[in-house]
Amino acid sequence: MTNTGHNESELFARARQGDAEAFAQLFEQYRPTLCRVVYRLVGADDCEDVVMESYLKAWRAIPGFRGRSALSTWLCRIARNCAIDWQRQSTRRERHHVHEYESEEDEAPLIERTPDEQQPTPERQAHLNDLGQILQEGLAQLSDEHRTALVLREIDGLSYCNVAAATGVSIGTVMSRLFYARRRLRRIVEEKLA
Amino acid sequence: MKRVRWQQIRATLREQCQPPPLRSADEFWADFRARQQLVPQIADDPLAVPPRFAVSWLPALTGLAIVALVAVLFTKNLHTPPPTPVQAARLSEVEEVEVMVEYGGLMIMQDAESRGTLVWVTGMETHDG
Questions:
Q1: How much is the average pLDDT of A140-160?
Q2: What is the 3-state secondary structure (H, E, C) of chain A?
Q3: B46: alpha, beta or left? (left if phi > 0; alpha if psi -120 to 50)
């Protein structure tokens, strides 16, 4: 067993026994992934709350974790359940991020853009703007299931397993959705650029 | 049609569609610790199982029961010998008719469909009549 693995096992054992510090150390590494999943499912406004709720549920449930899946996958599944609960309770459904894709008249970007940390050249920026605009229109034409799978995999870099846990389907279904989503998006882009 | 590499699409998506930056770890986990004290740990893990998973047993079991029932009926049907074809009943053969009273006429009719024989005696004279 590697040193990291040993540390994780130790942290996991301590977390199961109620050590919150160990829990924080163990689960901090999954926070970026969890935030991305929740962000895609509920949008920016509720993201922090749902992430916190997911961690609290994980804290509550970790003594019963049997290790049948990876911790990150388990966490993604919890996050998905929390997001669903959150959406059910929320009366502000227009905040659902996916709906932003569907409004063609809405000028808001599909997903909030990053602050300009790396300024591209003007030519590169123009090309990105064209392609980016086409991609946003293309994403809007995908079904919710295809779009979510594509975004979680291609933009957020989740594993197939975690995409499956986050979306509540099998890995085979994820692969199928990705195949069709990529093909459709590529066709849209190529038609627009032709 | 212009061919676009998927890597280019992916790179553009990643450049344009990044999620907002994370809160600092210290801040987040301090918040977590403050709330975590209000949440007792439990041994069972109902949250890890998607609700749909538990509910999906019902239609699965129902479907299984229907399949089992159909299979039993089908198997039973296989083991039951097929009914032997009904032997064509011979038509009744009237060999002799004896009428004990005076009569006017006698008719013997045979119906192939109902496999019956009808003896029709007319003009019988009874003692009353």
A1: 92
A2: CCHHHHHHHHHHHHHHCCCHHHHHHHHHHHHHHHHHHHHHHHCHHHHHHHHHHHHHHHHHHHHHCCCCCCHHHHHHHHHHHHHHHHHHHCCCHHHCHHHHHHCCCCCCCCCCCCCCCCCCCHHHHHHHHHHHHHHHHHHHHCCHHHHHHHHHHHHCCCCHHHHHHHHCCCHHHHHHHHHHHHHHHHHHHHHHHC
A3: alpha
Q: Per the CB < 8 Å rule, is B13 touching A154?
A: yes
- Tell me what ipTM this predicted complex has: 0.70
Lowest mean pLDDT among A33-42, A184-193, B23-32, B49-58: B49-58
Determine the 3-state secondary structure of B118 from DSSP.
strand
Which of A28, A110, A189 is opposite residue B9, by nearest beta carbon? A189
Same domain, A20 and A84: yes
Distance from CA of B60 to the nearest CA of A (A): 17
Structure-token pair, residue A186:
């590529």
A114 and A82 share one domain: no
Portion of chain B with pLDDT greater than 70, in percent: 74
- Do residues A122 and A84 share a domain? no
pTM over 0.90: no
pLDDT single digits (tens) A48-97: 999 999 999 999 999 888 888 899 999 999 999 999 888 888 755 555 55
**Overall number of domains in chain A:** 2
Neighboring chain B residues of A19 at a CB cutoff of 8 Å: none
Domain of residue A116, residue span: 110-193
